[in-house]
Amino acid sequence: MSLSAIVLDASMALAWAFEDEGNAYTDTVLESLAEVKAFVPAIWPLEVGNALLVAERRGRLNQAATVQFLALLWQLPIMVETERPEQMLGETLALAREHGLSTYDATYLLLAMRRGFPLATTDAGLRQAATRAGVPLFRQ
Description:
It contains seven helices and four strands; from the N terminus they run βααβααβααβα. A four-stranded parallel beta sheet has the order 3-2-1-4. The protein is an alpha/beta fold. Helix 6 crosses helix 7 (124-133).
């Protein structure tokens, strides 16, 4: 079975920004985007942006590196999904409670459940919740 799309969380994209966080799995996910689309919830750009800003403040990245990374990131086939706030909050909050996740992480799980696409994440807790919820994980 060939993949048409995946759900991508912020941890995965950030692993591409920081050389010491990348590994064979994150590289494979990135390479897969040559053939598949990635879907992300509306919170994703804010999570990525905040992590990059914090990295700048801690001296891990400079502004030029952030700008360059974002330019490369937006060349990828990443589709940002939007939802009505009341729908997002109700379902996301319930899912977060059920699986012991933050509401941020629950948005990725909910999107993967709705779309039926595998979830690509480096977050161990989110991977465990996906497995419990019957959501497939992106495999190498």
